[in-house]
Write a structure and sequence with these properties.
This protein has no helices and 16 strands. With about 230 residues, the chain is an all-beta fold.
Protein backbone atom coordinates (compact mmCIF):
# COMPACT_ATOMS: atom_id res chain seq x y z
CA UNK A 1 0.00 0.00 0.00
CA UNK A 2 1.22 3.39 -0.84
CA UNK A 3 1.98 6.18 1.58
CA UNK A 4 0.70 4.36 4.62
CA UNK A 5 0.72 5.70 8.13
CA UNK A 6 1.60 3.20 10.43
CA UNK A 7 -3.75 -2.52 15.58
CA UNK A 8 -3.49 -3.94 20.46
CA UNK A 9 -4.84 -7.07 21.96
CA UNK A 10 -8.13 -7.58 23.81
CA UNK A 11 -7.52 -7.66 27.53
CA UNK A 12 -3.75 -7.50 26.93
CA UNK A 13 -2.42 -5.42 24.87
CA UNK A 14 0.46 -3.69 12.00
CA UNK A 15 0.14 0.05 6.40
CA UNK A 16 -1.84 3.37 6.14
CA UNK A 17 -1.84 6.16 3.55
CA UNK A 18 -0.45 9.64 3.93
CA UNK A 19 -3.98 10.52 2.89
CA UNK A 20 -5.09 9.33 6.34
CA UNK A 21 -7.10 12.04 7.97
CA UNK A 22 -6.84 12.26 11.74
CA UNK A 23 -10.31 12.64 13.21
CA UNK A 24 -12.01 12.22 16.53
CA UNK A 25 -14.23 9.25 17.26
CA UNK A 26 -17.30 11.37 16.54
CA UNK A 27 -16.06 12.63 13.17
CA UNK A 28 -17.26 9.61 11.22
CA UNK A 29 -20.38 10.09 9.13
CA UNK A 30 -22.21 6.76 8.91
CA UNK A 31 -24.40 6.07 5.87
CA UNK A 32 -27.74 4.29 5.83
CA UNK A 33 -27.52 0.69 6.97
CA UNK A 34 -27.71 -2.08 4.38
CA UNK A 35 -29.84 -5.20 4.79
CA UNK A 36 -26.75 -7.33 5.48
CA UNK A 37 -25.08 -4.67 7.58
CA UNK A 38 -22.92 -5.81 10.48
CA UNK A 39 -23.88 -2.78 12.55
CA UNK A 40 -25.32 -3.45 15.97
CA UNK A 41 -24.66 -4.42 19.57
CA UNK A 42 -23.00 -7.72 20.42
CA UNK A 43 -22.23 -9.76 23.51
CA UNK A 44 -18.71 -11.17 23.34
CA UNK A 45 -16.83 -14.00 25.02
CA UNK A 46 -13.29 -15.07 24.35
CA UNK A 47 -9.99 -16.61 25.41
CA UNK A 48 -6.78 -14.59 25.59
CA UNK A 49 -3.55 -15.53 23.84
CA UNK A 50 -1.80 -18.64 25.17
CA UNK A 51 -5.09 -19.56 26.84
CA UNK A 52 -4.38 -16.90 29.46
CA UNK A 53 -7.87 -16.52 30.85
CA UNK A 54 -11.37 -15.99 29.58
CA UNK A 55 -13.11 -12.65 29.13
CA UNK A 56 -16.56 -11.27 28.42
CA UNK A 57 -17.89 -7.91 27.34
CA UNK A 58 -19.73 -6.02 24.66
CA UNK A 59 -18.95 -4.91 21.12
CA UNK A 60 -20.56 -2.11 19.13
CA UNK A 61 -20.15 -2.20 15.34
CA UNK A 62 -20.99 0.96 13.38
CA UNK A 63 -21.21 1.30 9.59
CA UNK A 64 -18.63 3.86 8.39
CA UNK A 65 -19.02 4.02 4.63
CA UNK A 66 -16.69 1.47 3.02
CA UNK A 67 -15.83 -0.04 6.40
CA UNK A 68 -16.87 -0.39 10.02
CA UNK A 69 -15.88 0.96 13.40
CA UNK A 70 -15.45 -1.67 16.13
CA UNK A 71 -15.71 -0.56 19.78
CA UNK A 72 -15.16 -3.09 22.58
CA UNK A 73 -15.76 -2.84 26.32
CA UNK A 74 -14.34 -5.75 28.31
CA UNK A 75 -14.68 -5.30 32.06
CA UNK A 76 -14.26 -1.56 31.69
CA UNK A 77 -11.29 -1.79 29.33
CA UNK A 78 -11.97 -0.15 25.98
CA UNK A 79 -10.58 -0.94 22.53
CA UNK A 80 -11.42 0.69 19.22
CA UNK A 81 -10.68 -0.21 15.62
CA UNK A 82 -11.51 -0.27 11.94
CA UNK A 83 -12.83 -3.22 9.95
CA UNK A 84 -13.44 -4.23 6.34
CA UNK A 85 -15.56 -7.06 5.00
CA UNK A 86 -15.25 -9.40 2.00
CA UNK A 87 -18.06 -11.95 1.74
CA UNK A 88 -18.39 -13.68 5.10
CA UNK A 89 -14.93 -12.66 6.33
CA UNK A 90 -14.19 -9.51 8.32
CA UNK A 91 -10.73 -8.14 9.11
CA UNK A 92 -10.24 -5.63 11.93
CA UNK A 93 -7.31 -3.60 13.26
CA UNK A 94 -7.62 -2.15 16.77
CA UNK A 95 -5.84 -0.39 19.62
CA UNK A 96 -6.43 0.08 23.31
CA UNK A 97 -8.56 3.08 24.31
CA UNK A 98 -11.48 4.80 22.64
CA UNK A 99 -9.56 5.63 19.45
CA UNK A 100 -7.91 3.35 16.90
CA UNK A 101 -6.07 6.29 15.38
CA UNK A 102 -3.05 5.21 13.33
CA UNK A 103 -4.25 1.62 12.86
CA UNK A 104 -5.26 0.02 9.59
CA UNK A 105 -6.27 -3.37 8.26
CA UNK A 106 -6.08 -5.20 4.95
CA UNK A 107 -8.22 -8.25 4.19
CA UNK A 108 -6.93 -10.41 1.33
CA UNK A 109 -8.77 -13.01 -0.71
CA UNK A 110 -6.23 -15.64 -1.78
CA UNK A 111 -6.67 -16.86 -5.35
CA UNK A 112 -5.94 -20.36 -6.66
CA UNK A 113 -2.78 -19.00 -8.32
CA UNK A 114 -1.64 -17.29 -5.12
CA UNK A 115 -2.73 -13.80 -6.14
CA UNK A 116 -3.90 -11.64 -3.23
CA UNK A 117 -6.90 -9.38 -3.82
CA UNK A 118 -7.15 -6.97 -0.91
CA UNK A 119 -9.44 -4.41 0.64
CA UNK A 120 -7.95 -2.06 3.23
CA UNK A 121 -9.40 0.35 5.75
CA UNK A 122 -7.87 3.04 7.97
CA UNK A 123 -9.26 4.31 11.24
CA UNK A 124 -10.82 7.73 10.75
CA UNK A 125 -11.26 7.36 6.98
CA UNK A 126 -14.64 6.32 5.53
CA UNK A 127 -13.05 5.29 2.22
CA UNK A 128 -11.41 1.94 1.53
CA UNK A 129 -8.38 1.04 -0.56
CA UNK A 130 -7.95 -1.82 -3.02
CA UNK A 131 -4.79 -3.78 -3.71
CA UNK A 132 -3.70 -6.71 -5.87
CA UNK A 133 -0.49 -8.59 -5.09
CA UNK A 134 0.78 -11.09 -7.67
CA UNK A 135 3.31 -13.60 -6.41
CA UNK A 136 6.60 -13.70 -8.29
CA UNK A 137 8.46 -16.06 -5.96
CA UNK A 138 7.59 -18.49 -3.16
CA UNK A 139 4.80 -20.91 -2.32
CA UNK A 140 1.72 -20.96 -0.15
CA UNK A 141 1.24 -17.50 1.33
CA UNK A 142 4.95 -16.90 1.77
CA UNK A 143 6.88 -15.20 -1.00
CA UNK A 144 7.54 -12.06 -2.96
CA UNK A 145 4.80 -10.12 -4.74
CA UNK A 146 4.37 -7.27 -7.21
CA UNK A 147 1.73 -4.90 -5.87
CA UNK A 148 -0.68 -2.52 -7.61
CA UNK A 149 -3.56 -0.66 -6.04
CA UNK A 150 -5.71 2.41 -5.61
CA UNK A 151 -5.53 4.33 -2.33
CA UNK A 152 -8.35 6.00 -0.42
CA UNK A 153 -7.88 9.21 -2.43
CA UNK A 154 -8.35 7.33 -5.72
CA UNK A 155 -4.65 7.49 -6.63
CA UNK A 156 -2.93 4.49 -8.24
CA UNK A 157 0.24 3.04 -6.74
CA UNK A 158 2.61 0.10 -7.20
CA UNK A 159 5.37 -1.56 -5.24
CA UNK A 160 6.61 -4.78 -3.66
CA UNK A 161 5.36 -7.04 -0.87
CA UNK A 162 7.22 -9.77 1.02
CA UNK A 163 5.29 -12.27 3.16
CA UNK A 164 7.11 -14.44 5.71
CA UNK A 165 5.87 -16.94 8.31
CA UNK A 166 6.36 -15.61 11.82
CA UNK A 167 5.02 -17.02 15.11
CA UNK A 168 1.31 -17.78 14.86
CA UNK A 169 0.94 -15.76 11.67
CA UNK A 170 2.78 -13.91 8.94
CA UNK A 171 4.79 -10.72 8.67
CA UNK A 172 3.83 -8.56 5.68
CA UNK A 173 6.52 -6.09 4.54
CA UNK A 174 5.59 -3.53 1.88
CA UNK A 175 7.76 -1.23 -0.17
CA UNK A 176 5.47 1.10 -2.09
CA UNK A 177 6.65 4.68 -1.86
CA UNK A 178 7.58 3.94 1.76
CA UNK A 179 8.55 0.84 3.71
CA UNK A 180 6.22 -0.48 6.40
CA UNK A 181 5.19 -3.73 8.03
CA UNK A 182 2.10 -5.54 9.30
CA UNK A 183 1.21 -8.82 10.97
CA UNK A 184 -1.76 -11.14 10.49
CA UNK A 185 -3.07 -14.66 10.07
CA UNK A 186 -4.44 -16.83 7.31
CA UNK A 187 -7.78 -18.63 7.57
CA UNK A 188 -8.67 -20.75 4.57
CA UNK A 189 -8.52 -18.58 1.46
CA UNK A 190 -8.34 -15.25 3.33
CA UNK A 191 -5.66 -13.38 5.27
CA UNK A 192 -6.35 -10.51 7.67
CA UNK A 193 -3.44 -8.17 8.46
CA UNK A 194 -3.29 -5.38 11.01
CA UNK A 195 -0.76 -2.57 10.69
CA UNK A 196 0.21 0.64 12.40
CA UNK A 197 2.95 -0.48 14.77
CA UNK A 198 3.06 -2.68 17.84
CA UNK A 199 0.16 -0.80 19.46
CA UNK A 200 -2.15 -2.22 16.79
CA UNK A 201 -3.59 -5.73 16.79
CA UNK A 202 -5.81 -7.66 14.39
CA UNK A 203 -8.95 -9.79 14.36
CA UNK A 204 -10.08 -12.17 11.63
CA UNK A 205 -13.80 -12.90 11.96
CA UNK A 206 -15.98 -15.38 10.09
CA UNK A 207 -19.63 -14.38 9.82
CA UNK A 208 -21.84 -17.31 10.74
CA UNK A 209 -25.57 -17.85 10.04
CA UNK A 210 -27.64 -15.72 12.36
CA UNK A 211 -25.06 -12.95 12.46
CA UNK A 212 -22.60 -14.48 14.96
CA UNK A 213 -18.95 -13.53 14.45
CA UNK A 214 -16.28 -16.15 15.22
CA UNK A 215 -12.87 -14.55 15.52
CA UNK A 216 -9.16 -15.15 16.00
CA UNK A 217 -7.06 -12.23 17.18
CA UNK A 218 -3.56 -11.24 18.12
CA UNK A 219 -0.92 -8.54 17.94
CA UNK A 220 2.35 -7.89 16.18
CA UNK A 221 4.54 -11.00 16.33
CA UNK A 222 2.03 -13.11 18.26
CA UNK A 223 3.25 -16.60 19.11
CA UNK A 224 -0.35 -17.74 19.60
CA UNK A 225 -3.77 -16.25 18.95
CA UNK A 226 -6.81 -15.59 21.09
CA UNK A 227 -10.36 -16.46 20.14
CA UNK A 228 -13.58 -14.46 20.35
CA UNK A 229 -17.26 -15.04 19.64
CA UNK A 230 -19.57 -12.06 19.17
CA UNK A 231 -23.32 -12.72 19.26
CA UNK A 232 -25.68 -10.01 18.06
CA UNK A 233 -28.20 -8.86 20.62
Amino acid sequence: MKNIIPFALLLTVALGCSQFKTVNNTDFEPPAAASDDLSGQYDISGINENGAGAYRGTLAITNRGDGYQFSWDTAGKKYDGVGVRTGNTVGVAFAAGDSGEGCGVVLYKIGADGTLDGKAGYWGNNNSETETAKRTKGSGLEGEYDVTGTNTAGQAYEGKLNVKKSGAGYTFSWSAGASFEGFGIRQGDTAAVGFGGDKCGFVSYELKPGGTLDGKWGGYGSKSVGTETAKKK
